[in-house]
Write a structure and sequence with these properties.
Blueprint: H1 2-18, E1 34-39, E2 50-59, E3 63-65, E4 75-87, E5 90-101, E6 106-109, E7 113-117, E8 123-127, E9 131-134, H2 158-182, H3 196-208, H4 218-237, H5 246-255, H6 263-275, H7 282-299
Antiparallel strand pairs: 1-2, 2-5, 3-7, 4-5, 6-9, 7-8
C-alpha cells in the first residue's frame, strides 16, 4: 500500500512539472527587415512632380504598424498609396509618395519611421533615408567676367590722336548713313518668357509672405490669389479669364474640353468673399492658397525627358 502511494506521488510531481508554463523571450533582429528608399529623379524644378518610394520587406511573423501619414518637409504631398506583395513567407510593402517642391534651393523630405511588433510583443523601429534633391534653375547662370585688357597708351603726339579721332568719326557717320539707307527693319527677337506655372507659384509665395491673413485682410488676400490663378489659366490655355465671370471662364474651358478639378469651387468661394461680403476663417483662407497651388501643379505641362 505504501509503495502504491509513493508511486502516485512521484507520478503527480512529474505531471505537474510538465504542465508548468514556460516563458519565451523574443527579440526582433534588424537583419530580418530590409528597407530601401528610391527617388524617381536626380534633380527637379519648382512645381515638378516626382515620386519617393519606401520599400520594406519583412517576415510574416512580424506585424507592421503602417504610418498614417508622412512628413514631406519642404515639399507638398499630392498623392500617397500603399502597394503590397506576399511571397515565400515574406511581405513586401511599397509606400509611394507623389510630391512637388516650391522651394527654390532644394527639395528635402526627412526620414520616416517604420515600427514592427513580434508575436511576443517586442517592437523595433527602423528609419528610411533622408531625401534631398537639388532644384534646377530655369534661367541660365551668368558667365564669368573676362579679364580686363591692358590699358592703351596714347601716342606722344596729340596731333595724331586728333586726326585719328576725326577720321574715325567721319567713318562712323558715313557707315551710319550708308546702313540707314540700305538697312531694312528687322524685328527684335522676343525675350524668353518664364513658364506660366513657375510665375504663378512665385506670385503665390509673395502673396503668402505679405501677412494679409494676420491682418485679417481677407478680401485683398482672396483677390490677389484668384487673380494670380486667372492669369495662369490665360497663359496656360489661351482663354480670357481676367475680366470674365466664373460661369464665363468655366464655359470657355468646357468649350475647349478642359476640366480642372476643384476650380469651380475655388472661384465661387472667392466670389462670396469679394462680392457677398462673406468673412472666412483663417484656416479656410490657407486652404484656398493650398488649393490654388494644387491646381497649378496638376495642370502644369510636364517637362520633356532628355531622350524625347
Amino acid at each position: 500500500m505504501i509503495r502504491i502511494v509513493l508511486v502516485m506521488l512521484v507520478g503527480c510531481s512529474l505531471v505537474g512539472s510538465c504542465l508548468r508554463p514556460t516563458v519565451a523571450f523574443c527579440a526582433i533582429s534588424p537583419s530580418l527587415i530590409r528597407l530601401e528608399t528610391r527617388v524617381s529623379a536626380d534633380s527637379v524644378t519648382v512645381g515638378e512632380r516626382f515620386r519617393i518610394i519606401h520599400e520594406v520587406a519583412y517576415p510574416d511573423s512580424l506585424v507592421f504598424i503602417s504610418p498614417e501619414t508622412f512628413d514631406v518637409g519642404s515639399c507638398r504631398l499630392l498623392d500617397f498609396e500603399w502597394k503590397e506583395d506576399t511571397s515565400d513567407h515574406r511581405t513586401t510593402k511599397n509606400a509611394v509618395l507623389e510630391v512637388i517642391t516650391t522651394d527654390l534651393d532644394k527639395a528635402y523630405v526627412p526620414k520616416a519611421a517604420f515600427v514592427f511588433r513580434s508575436p511576443a510583443g517586442d517592437t523595433l523601429t527602423v528609419y528610411t533615408d533622408d531625401v534631398e534633391l537639388p532644384v534646377r534653375r530655369l534661367t541660365g547662370e551668368a558667365s564669368e567676367p573676362k579679364p580686363l585688357k591692358p590699358q592703351w597708351k596714347a601716342p606722344p603726339s596729340h596731333l595724331y590722336l586728333y586726326l585719328a579721332g576725326a577720321l574715325m568719326l567721319l567713318a562712323a557717320v558715313a557707315t551710319y548713313v550708308f546702313l540707314r539707307w540700305r538697312r531694312r527693319e528687322v524685328p527684335a527677337a522676343p525675350k524668353p518668357e518664364l513658364p506660366a506655372d513657375f510665375v504663378a507659384l512665385q506670385a503665390l509665395n509673395e502673396i503668402e509672405q505679405m501677412g494679409l491673413l494676420e491682418d485679417e485682410e481677407f478680401k485683398k488676400f482672396y483677390t490677389l490669389v484668384i487673380d494670380t490663378l486667372r492669369r495662369y489659366i490665360e497663359r496656360r490655355y489661351g482663354v480670357m479669364a481676367m475680366d470674365r465671370t466664373t460661369d464665363e471662364i468655366l464655359w470657355d474651358l468646357r468649350r475647349i474640353r478642359i476640366e480642372i478639378k476643384g476650380l469651380e469651387e475655388l472661384l465661387r468661394e472667392a466670389d462670396l468673399v469679394k462680392f457677398a461680403k462673406h468673412r472666412p476663417r483663417v484656416e479656410e483662407a490657407k486652404k484656398l492658397m493650398d488649393s490654388a497651388r494644387r491646381i497649378i501643379a496638376l495642370t502644369a505641362p510636364r517637362p520633356l525627358a532628355a531622350s524625347e
